[in-house]
Amino acid sequence: MTSTPMIELSDVQKSFGSKTVLNGVDLSIPKGQSLVIIGGSGTGKSVTLKCILGLLKPDSGVITVDGQDATKLGSRDRKALLQKFGMLFQGAALFDSLPVWQNVAFGLIQGQGMNKKDAREIATEKLRRVGLSPDVGLLSPSELSGGMQKRVGLARAIAAEPEIIFFDEPTTGLDPIMADVINDLIVECVQDLGATTLSITHDMASARKIADRIAMLYQGKIIWEGPKADIDRSGNDYVTQFISGSATGPIQMELLKN
Ligand SMILES: Nc1ncnc2c1ncn2[C@@H]1O[C@H](COP(=O)(O)OP(=O)(O)OP(=O)(O)O)[C@@H](O)[C@H]1O
Question: Where is the ABC transporter domain (predicted)?
Answer without folding.
Answer: 7-243
